[in-house]
Write a structure and sequence with these properties.
Layout (H helix, E strand, L loop, with lengths): L3 E4 L4 E4 L7 E6 L10 H19 L3 E6 L6 H10 L3 H18 L15 H13 L3 E4 L2 E4 L37 E6 L9 E3 L2 E5 L1 H13 L3 E7 L3 H16 L4 E7 L2 E3 L2 E2 L10 H6 L4 H9 L7 E2 L5 H20 L6 H20 L4 H20 L5 H18 L4 H4 L5 H16 L3 H13 L2 E6 L2 E6 L1
Parallel strand pairs: 3-4, 3-10, 10-11, 12-14
Antiparallel strand pairs: 1-2, 5-6, 6-7, 7-9, 8-9, 12-13, 15-16
The structure holds adenosine monophosphate and zinc ion.
Length: 467
């Protein structure tokens, strides 16, 4: 079996066939950089990261573009409220976005284009749409004419007849010919303050949907492979992206559309507007380690809503402790002779892992295969069948799994800030024990317990982890 996933365009699970053999071009709608992204946003970005990692595991040469929406109503409002330039305002949140995504192990995309750096491409697209009669200009603004694009609504499965055709509503968009038409370019208004571009379309700024069409076409070309985002982007954002790009290219914008479900809190979507959100920093402050955050956010299938529960941390810790124990067992294993057995286990579990990931990125099942591998490797350690050759194979297998899962290597990258102090206390305890100074040894141990550190003495070495 080879890779297949659910394509929102057809509402079917389809085999994945790339546009160019061996290569994948994918695009993710990135963050709107007006505030620090919350872990709901990051769940969506993690799904792109998971696919990116898995495509690389399969050996594809992947170009992954994630845009940064650094111009929209919210960024303009934020910059103007603080009295700073849009650039300075959004720079701050872009830096925080990168900081947070690195903490939870989201791999680097090939590029992070900013909308504000692609104004000429957007203006050109509007001009082309106007020439093709897919768009019109009114009072310095440009609108996409939905009537001119018969397949409008296909991605979102909209019944266009049911939408109020031709009705004019009393809104600030009264100048549109049809209420369904959407803005490509917005005329400068007082509230925009200093944020504006002087272009052949007049003084104004681009609409949000246009940004992604212009940047994805520029960097990934026509009919690229995979477009990703959260389910709330299907309509209107992605539907509008399709209309804009295809109105110019007459080719499918992307061939596969992958949408991930939301992270919920008490049954409601985590969102900035509801105020029911946490950032990665909030989670670290609550005592979650980076690997625990990543593990928790990726749990469940990407097409199922996941409830965020702070209380889930205990079971995440337990699950991760099984991995951690396996790593320690392998490190200290001193047996031999288990190579044929281990090879069988590796082949079987790796096949299961791959079958699961191939099946619409069935992460929970893929993880189950890795857990089985860990259990079996532990058994071989206990049976003294793991020596240096076996250890090398088992460790390489775990590394391969982790190139997709991405949580095992995480806390190595973000070292525990207290590691040096903890190790010093362990040293004090061990020295005290050697000199039979039990009171001193107990004092050091109590201090470590108070800090939430668990110690395990193995093969003459003390291993520590957080509770
Ligand atoms: P924004 O920064 O608002 O443009 O959103 C960035 C991405 O986060 C989009 O793909 C949204 O669909 C996604 N998103 C927003 N809220 C959630 C949530 N609660 N769970 C998962 N994804 C979300
Ligand atoms: Zn987008």
């Amino acid at each position: 079996m080879s890779l297949r996933f659910f394509n929102t365009l057809s509402r079917k699970v389809e085999p994945f066939v790339p546009r160019d053999t061996g290569k994948v071009a994918m695009y993710t709608c990135g963050p709107t950089v007006y505030a620090r992204a919350h872990i709901g946003n990051f769940r969506t970005f993690l799904v792109s990261d998971l696919l990116h990692r898995y495509l690389k595991y399969l050996g594809y040469d992947v170009t992954w573009v994630m845009n940064l929406t650094d111009i929209d109503d919210k960024t303009i409002k934020g910059a103007n409220a603080e009295g700073i330039s849009l650039r300075d305002y959004t720079d701050k949140y872009i830096a925080l976005f990168h900081e947070d995504r690195k903490i939870i192990g989201i791999t680097d995309a090939t590029m992070y284009p900013r909308a504000t750096e692609h104004i000429p491409e957007m203006v050109k697209m509007v001009e082309d749409l106007v020439s093709a009669k897919h768009a019109y200009l009114v009072d310095g603004s440009a609108y996409f004419k939905i009537d001119s694009f018969p397949s409008y609504g296909q991605l979102a499965r909209l019944n266009m007849e049911e939408m109020r055709v031709g009705e004019r509503v009393a809104s600030d968009e009264y100048e549109k010919e049809d209420v369904r038409d959407f803005a490509l370019w917005k005329n400068w208004e007082e509230v925009d303050g200093p944020v504006a571009w002087d272009t052949s379309l007049g003084k104004g700024r681009p609409g949000w949907h246009l940004e992604c069409s212009a940047m994805s076409l520029k960097y990934l070309g026509k009919g690229f492979d995979i477009h990703l985002g959260g389910v709330d982007l299907i309509f209107p954002h992605h539907q509008n992206e399709i209309a804009q790009t295809e109105g110019v290219t007459h080719e499918p914008l992307a061939r596969y559309w992958v949408h991930s479900e939301h992270l919920l809190v008490d049954g409601q979507k985590m969102s900035k507007s509801l105020g029911n959100f946490f950032t990665v920093t909030d989670m670290l402050e609550k005592g979650w380690r980076p690997r625990e955050i990543r593990y928790g956010l990726l749990s469940g299938h990407y097409r199922q809503r996941t409830n965020f529960q702070a209380s889930g941390l205990d079971s995440i810790k337990q699950a991760l402790a099984r991995f951690e124990a396996c790593a320690v067992n392998l490190e200290h294993a001193d047996g031999k002779g288990g190579l044929p057995e281990l090879r069988d286990i590796v082949a079987r579990r790796e096949q299961e892992f791959r079958d699961a990931m191939d099946d619409d990125l069935n992460y929970p099942e893929a993880l189950a295969a890795v857990f089985n591998f860990v259990r079996e490797a532990n058994t071989l350690c206990q049976e003294h069948k793991i020596g240096s050759e076996e250890r090398a194979l088992a460790v390489a297998t775990m590394k391969r799994f982790d190139s997709v899962l991405g949580f095992l290597s995480l806390d190595e990258a973000v070292a525990d800030p207290e590691a040096a102090e903890i190790e010093a206390l362990i040293e004090v305890r061990n020295e005290a024990r050697k000199s039979k100074n039990w009171a001193e040894a107990d004092r050091a141990r109590d201090e470590l317990t108070a800090r939430g550190i668990i110690l395990e003495d193995r093969a003459g070495k003390t291993i520590w982890r957080r509770k």
